[in-house]
Amino acid sequence: MPLHADQQRIDPVTANVIQGALENIAIEMGYKLMRMSYSSIIRESEDFGAALVDAEGHGLAESAQSTPLQSGPIPGYIRGIRKIMAERGEVVCPGDVIMHNDAYSGASHGPDVAFIVPVFVDGELVAYSANTAHHLDIGALSPGSCGIVDALDAYAEGLQFKAIKVYDQGRKVEPVWTILRDNIRASDLVVGDMEAQIAAARIGADRLLELIGRHGVGTFKAACAEIMDIAERLMRHAITQVPDGVYRAETAIDGFADDPDPARRNLPIVATITVAGSDLIVDLAGTAPQVPDRPINMPLDGTVDVAVWLTVRSILLDTAVHGHIPVNAGLLRPITLRAPKGCLANPVFPAPTIARFCPGNQVADTVMKALALAVPDQVAAGIGQLKVIAFSGLTGESHWVHMEIFEGSYGGRAGMDGMDAVDTLYANTRNNPIEDIETHLPLTVDRYELREDVVGAGKWRGGFGSVRAFTFVQDGGASVEGEGHVFRPWGFAGGAPGQPARLDHVTGADGTRALPSKVPYFAIKAGETFLATGPAGGGYGDPFERSPDAVLDDVLDDLITPETARRDFGVVITDGAIDHAATTALRAAR
Amino acid sequence: MKLVGVDVGGTFTDVVYTDTEARTTRIHKVPTTPADPSVGVVDGIHGLCDRFGISAGEIDHVFHGTTIATNAVLEYKGATTGMVTTAGYRDIVHIGRHQRPQHYSIRQEIPWQDRPLVRRRHRKTVRERLSPVKGDVRVPLDEAAVREAARGLKAAGVDSIAVCFLFSYIDPSHEERAKAIILEEFPECFVTTSAAVSPQFREFERFTTAAMSAFIGPKVSRYVGALERMLAARGLKADLHIMSSNGGVATAPVVAERPVLTLLSGPAAGVLGGAWTGALSQRRQLITFDVGGTSADIGIVDDGRFAEATARDTWIGGYPVMVPMIDIHTIGAGGGSIAHVDGGGAFKVGPHSAGARPGPAAYGHGGDRPTVTDANVVLGRLDKDRFLGGAMALDEAAAHRVVGALADTLGLSPRETAAGILTIINANMANAIRSRTVQKGIDPRRFALVAFGGAGPLHGCEVAAMLGIPEVLVPAYPGITSAVGLLTTDIKYDAIRTAFQLSTGYDLGLINQGFDAMRAEITAQFTATGIATEAIRFARAADVRYVGQGYELRIGVPDGGLDDAALAAVFARFHAAHKAEYGHSFEASVIELVNLRLTGTGAMPKIGEPAGPPAGTLEAARVRSGPCVFRGPSGLTDVDTVFYDRDRLPVDTPFAGPAIILQTDSTTVVPPGCTVTADRAGNLLIQIGG
What we know:
The complex is a heterodimer of chains A (590) and B (690).
Chain A: H1 12-36, H2 40-43, E1 48-54, E2 59-62, H3 68-71, H4 74-88, E3 97-100, E4 112-121, E5 124-134, E6 164-168, E7 171-172, H5 174-183, H6 187-215, H7 217-240, E8 245-255, E9 265-276, E10 279-283, H8 300-316, H9 319-322, E11 335-338, H10 357-374, E12 387-395, E13 398-406, H11 434-440, E14 443-450, E15 466-472, E16 476-482, E17 502-506, E18 512-515, E19 518-524, E20 529-533, H12 548-556, H13 562-569, E21 573-574, E22 577-578, H14 580-588
Parallel strand pairs in A: 10-11
Antiparallel strand pairs in A: 1-2, 1-5, 3-4, 3-6, 4-5, 6-7, 8-9, 9-10, 12-13, 12-16, 14-15, 15-20, 16-19, 17-18, 17-20, 21-22
Helix pairs in contact in A: 1-6, 1-7, 6-7, 8-10
Chain B: E1 2-8, E2 12-19, E3 24-31, H1 37-52, E4 61-65, H2 68-74, E5 81-86, H3 92-95, H4 111-114, E6 123-126, E7 129-131, E8 136-139, H5 143-155, E9 160-164, H6 173-185, E10 190-193, H7 194-197, H8 203-233, E11 239-243, E12 249-251, H9 252-257, H10 265-280, E13 286-291, E14 296-302, E15 305-306, E16 315-316, E17 319-320, E18 328-331, E19 337-341, E20 347-353, H11 372-378, H12 396-410, H13 414-436, E21 448-452, H14 456-467, E22 471-474, H15 481-486, E23 491-502, H16 508-528, E24 536-546, E25 553-557, H17 564-582, E26 591-602, H18 618-621, E27 622-632, E28 635-645, E29 655-656, E30 659-663, E31 666-670, E32 675-678, E33 684-687
Parallel strand pairs in B: 1-4, 4-11, 5-6, 5-9, 9-10, 13-21, 21-22, 28-30
Antiparallel strand pairs in B: 1-2, 2-3, 7-8, 11-12, 13-14, 14-15, 14-18, 16-17, 19-20, 22-33, 23-26, 24-25, 24-26, 27-28, 29-32, 30-31, 32-33
């Protein structure tokens, strides 16, 4: 239901003009944050978000550059601080800047810290300008802010900020900043990034004030209500195109594949989607129980919700098909999310959550697998999972920390092969240039190529994974947070499943050790290498129906061997050419 | 001097001739010949000479803006291209930054994967490797492998090869040696190295730029060669200069070797033409606003100089390109932009366009969807009998029909719908300008808007009003501003070096050597084109950031040997620029000089001030009057509006809007409350009021 049905009607022209202006402001905020920030995780990986939110916590617009897992949760952060501050009897005032990262109050996880600037017009709080960014370190038990896979509880994950004013009516709250500097590694970078966030959020607030000044508060509110209603109608219209029904899918995550405790490994993720008219319900019942003392639990608000709605909208309102669609809270209204309390997707405090990145992406993949049953032409087969490695070391008394996100791959699609070696679903970050890494860090990147001859066969094959090798130039350490070493990305409609990822720790000529997808911090000597081998996405459709020309192309491109062409695709290639007679015979004989 | 500028557009090839001594300017238009645009270029020049009795042999210089490179990329029709790259890194151009172009899409394409500039089978790897920071050789170049790769690529039938090695921006000798070996084996091949195209760090972007250079190279060099021959065959002895994306021109041999220089050739000339227009009326703070049928190009001219895009913000056809380019922002908004209601009931205009065919419904070519042009017709702002100088009669009934159908869907009156279409498209254009000004710390209220292209003068005043821009300029011939811009350029070459020097510890010798080496490089380029060293003007700059940041700001660097004081001044300017652009500076942070840049400019003769327009009177200029719809304090109202013939307007005589000013290649709308003056320079100056 429209939330502002009692307010004045707005004409569609003004609604469009205000919508465009809101988006422009969010984009400016993201642009400035990305350019001002110091850490590569923000400015290269683009692991940040920027958004404008109304006074009740409904998202109005988001920055186009930011990654969905950062911009999507921002309205939840706002709702979180409103609740906490109400409980504490605290009041938001003009000139405040509020810091927040509580995963049990809307935050995506601890390292994604939000800075929030309230926007007042004539003493009335009308909106918030906010941004989030993934910080290099947040004072957890080991360096970096990913790969903290041995955190026992929320307290072990680093500092918890529950609606903390870092500026109070314009005055800097110095003790808070002192605590930050004293408890965070590489604090110059981290605090610099936080200052950049505040500068960007304030710019967003100033621009929003100018916009409201141009139109008046009444028109502004009416326009916000209207653009959310438009977005809701758009999503409802899209859902009505999906056949009514109940669609269930199950996948699984590695969890801690080397853990003796069976409750920590091979954990099911289940999504049951009910489509009825213009409503869509996603129920995650059947998903494994939470792991009380390992941080792969997923905040329901801030991670699971984003994973679900991102997947639904990427399939039903695919921008490659529908063009640009403004993102606001209205898009979410027709989607209901349910997850039983105490499961991986709705944990109970203080269960740790810092390493929720990959499980959340598996929820997204599972939702796609369920929707595949309803709208098979609009999905990709199973995606290959990602991993993050936090590299670190000491130079004198100060830390260096570098986090690198390793790419997955997409499954095949109707009429299209899968995307090769990219971030998947709710993650869309960027790698760091080799020429930047080697210039600024004691690391070398010794290889970066596609992973050959490992493919999810299909009429439309899955995307290829990558191979990337990092070597330490000095002694240091690292921790690993990933998924997808055990289970193969699902094939669809007769397509073969893809292949899992792997990670090897190479200590010398013979000393190669396969690692599980999650490894807590351990020391690494100069000259030792991580060899990360990415997953291959699942195949779509019967591989024996794949065009022989397309198979030949993959052979000529050294992506697959003639043996694989014959075995997996039933195409006989001799001396770089298709043997059509032999191919027909082989395919017929299956 | 006798100069000719030729700009090839989608529909017409515009030719402008000027005699700088006689102060005469002549204009000629011929249809563009898409299959081989050089045919239209030669026909256009020939036609102009015939029509005005000009002897082709007397023309001194021909300046040409071409979309041949851009179209090769956009249409994905280039050479079969090979690559020789460092072993272990075969797929840098395929993996890219591992980011998908669209966040919310399963069925998207990735340009560099779906339309590779070099297919994987044509990417050969050879053992070699340099290390930063000094370029130490970690692995020597395997020359035998290069030779074998060259033979393999030749046998595979490639036409061109890009040599792309890691860290070649520090030391290009491996790439250059590899190029030499390839040319020994395959002398007819077009070979380029990544360091020669753009010696800057960030391997995906640099390799892609080199691959694009190789992809378009043979086509561009064939085109330029053929054009030179055809012009010579028609008796021209003139030098041919090609417009570059950096806002200068380059000689034909330079373009043949570095074809990526021309990727933004067309729109760059528009910004120059806009800047020239403003300068005629002593305006040096300008926003150029070039609106055609499908898109609007926006450029910023600050103190007479145009802004350059940062290397990380430059894309063509979805591929990143690291070459110096004028900062031009293009959005899908023009006269043909289609208005529609989306599945959620939102009223939208663009980005899809009806194009030239079928075009707006009012064109009468079967267009059945409401466009911006149709909205202008419904509001009475376009004269049905005098559109394009009367060359095309507008079908008013068709415009009313399609706008009316949309109005029914929206539940608005047709007039409100038409006015809404304009408000929305104008707001989109204003947002685009805002993103280039306000978002970068530039206050648009200090600027004048130069409105040109067929549709720019229709929208300029209302867009300016939305942004608080006080003045709009409309050039004498809005439709040929790009061609005129070609006659205002200089020869301009850029050099760049990645330096990575910190404010807390830098090597002055290395920085000074870097600038000296670039100066020698640029001087050699000019000398090769017959321009004397003393005729070159140099401008230095550096790309600077706080250490740790990933984006740089361009900061001017003084001439001469640099000392500590000079660098300290550069760092101080960086703090100030950072504060201006982002609203914040970090005074305590260490600063990093990332790239050194040098631009050499060699002056070319230019078009002079036009002779003043003939003096007319308002009475003589008056064509008719009729109702036009404008929004006033009480909503939309019919306002009796006079239509004037621009050629007969009095000079330096302000008159008040509302007014519609007609001319062959455009229509200018002067809303109520605005005041317009035709000045001696031939421009319309409109003061935004109301």
